[in-house]
């Protein structure tokens, strides 16, 4: 399965499977409800405004570009691609697994699948950050797609955790507003720690985007509005600072 010459084709096959399943999830829809309907059914104080999910289109286009880029560079990146594929295929499987479990409303299992997706993306993210002296193509088509993908899934994990806590019945004593605020703060701390280590300004951007969309949707909840809005601002400033630092290092 993992012969170097066919690795780009396996990557393409599994990525196409993810795209097809996402289309079917809306067209059929899977489990009898669309993703938007489920988001409304299991709404929490961390559920962002609907426009926030448009970022999936950006992420999938960029990941698609990375697959094409790797195919074109398959000879020069043969050894690196083996490690990439060993992380990428599981990420596709966990993405599809989450989608199936979410649409059939297995909340706890879908959260576990989301965690596993984040773990596999963390492996991909770390792999792309290990590229020494990346070319412009490697920055745009390897580093950027998986920085945005990983960042967005960090935000998605927080939302799915809030859904699981609120609707699974496992922790009925938890207070929704307090839990939402704590999770927002945890997200900021995690991203700042990771960003300080990698000095990657792209990683905080999708989380800032998601946090801003949370503030827009829940403007009537003042504590959530304040926390998510402040957190989005902090992450945006942090991202810009990291971009500035990286640009100074390259000069």
Can you characterise this structure?
There is one protein chain. With 251 residues, the chain is an all-alpha fold. It has one domain (4-250). Helix content is 77%, strand content 0%. It has 9 helices and no strands. It has helices spanning 7-27, 35-41, 55-72, 78-103, 107-129, 136-167, 176-198, 204-217, 222-250. Helix 6 runs parallel beside helix 8. The protein is globular.
Name the overall outline. globular
Estimate the mean pLDDT confidence.
Answer: 93
Indicate the structural class: mainly alpha
Q: Count of helices?
A: 9
Task: Itemize the secondary structure elements and their pairings.
Layout: H1 7-27, H2 35-41, H3 55-72, H4 78-103, H5 107-129, H6 136-167, H7 176-198, H8 204-217, H9 222-250
Index terms:
251 residues, mainly alpha, 9 helices, 0% strand, globular
Brief characterization of the structure:
With 251 residues, the chain is mainly α.
């Amino acid at each position: 399965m993992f012969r170097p010459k066919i690795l780009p084709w396996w990557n393409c096959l599994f990525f196409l499977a993810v795209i097809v399943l996402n289309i079917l999830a809306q067209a059929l829809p899977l489990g009898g409800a669309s993703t938007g309907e489920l988001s409304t059914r299991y709404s929490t104080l961390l559920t962002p405004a609907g426009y926030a999910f448009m970022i999936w289109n950006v992420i999938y286009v960029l990941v698609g570009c990375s697959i094409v880029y790797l195919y074109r560079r398959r000879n020069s990146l043969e050894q690196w691609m083996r490690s990439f594929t060993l992380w990428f295929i599981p990420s596709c499987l966990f993405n599809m697994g989450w989608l199936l479990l979410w649409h059939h409303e297995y909340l706890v299992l879908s959260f576990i699948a989301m965690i596993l997706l984040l773990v596999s993306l963390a492996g991909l993210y770390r792999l792309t950050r290990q590229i020494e002296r990346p070319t412009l193509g490697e920055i745009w088509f390897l580093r950027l797609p998986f920085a945005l993908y990983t960042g967005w899934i960090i935000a998605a994990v927080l939302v799915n955790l809030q859904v699981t806590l609120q609707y699974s019945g496992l922790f009925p004593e938890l207070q929704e507003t307090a839990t939402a605020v704590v999770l927002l703060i945890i997200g900021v701390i995690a991203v700042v720690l990771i960003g300080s280590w990698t000095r990657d300004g792209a990683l905080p951007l999708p989380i800032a985007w998601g946090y801003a969309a949370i503030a827009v949707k829940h403007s009537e909840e003042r504590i959530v509005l304040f926390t998510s809005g402040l957190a989005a601002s902090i992450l945006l400033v942090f991202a810009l600072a990291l971009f500035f630092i990286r640009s100074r290092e390259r000069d």
